[in-house]
Amino acid sequence: MISKKKAAEMIDVMEELFPDAHCELNFGNEFELVLAVLLSAQTTDKSVNKLTQTLFEKYKTPNDYLAVELEQLEQDLKTIGLYRSKAKNIQALCKMLLEDYKGVVPNEFEKLVKLPGVGRKTANVVLSVGFNVPRIAVDTHVDRISKRLGFAKGDDTVLDVEHKLMRLIPEERWSKSHHLMIFFGRYHCTAKNPKCETCPLFSSCKEGKRLLKKKI
Fold first, then answer.
1. Which domains does the chain possess?
2. Which of 86, 139, 143, 164 is catalytic?
3. Is-contact 205 197, C-beta < 8 A?
4. Catalytic residue at 121?
5. Up-side HSE of residue 31: CA atoms within 13 Å toward CB?
6. Is the distance from CB of 171 to CB of 163 less than 8 angstroms?
7. 134 with 124: CB under 8 angstroms?
């Protein structure tokens, strides 16, 4: 695993590449943020934003989502993957918000992960983006970048990666680093055809060197 100094240098390089890295999901409040992140599972942010542009106009509150039949909500979500399970989770989440939290999204990790459809990654995103609590959410991009650049080992679990990043990166940089790694993975160090030839971190990337050797 790399040193804290090396980790900071890498994050600095990512920030030079993507100084405006941020959450690309559109939302107007913490409730919409929870739903947007839930909907983004195995779906692109672009697809979710296209959907929520109309969804968030049609449904404003937890009560609104519970006022329709499940089949209707499924139809509203049909343009994205896993829409049936997501519709079911949204209604169950709204029911729990009303019954246990007076319709307000909680700002505590332990309470967030109890909500249907909300896992560790979603809870961390909501805390970081919605409540400005320093967190690192490990999605597919963060996981891939962490392993390619030596923040974590190739066989580490998502939880292992999160804990290692938290040890390597100062807490005040957690939330920003999360977005930087996502942008770096989404627009530069992509899963397929990463831009190794022009990557400023290539010298530190064993995976990049291996990929280039395969091309030669």
1. 4-19+138-215 (1.10.1670.10), 30-131 (1.10.340.30)
2. 139
3. no
4. yes
5. 21
6. no
7. no
Q: Are 116 and 41 in contact (CB under 8 A)?
A: no
Q: Which of 6, 64, 121, 147 is catalytic?
A: 121
Determine the Cα–Cα distance for residues 200 and 37; give it in Å rounded to an integer. 30
Cβ-based neighbour number of residue 52 at 10 Å: 23
Is residue 58 part of the annotated active site? The answer reads: no
User: Tens of pLDDT along 172-205?
Assistant: 999 999 999 999 999 999 999 899 989 999 988 8
Q: Among residues 155, 125, 173, which one has the least CA distance to residue 24?
A: 125
Residue with tokens 């998502």: 158
pTM for the full model? 0.92
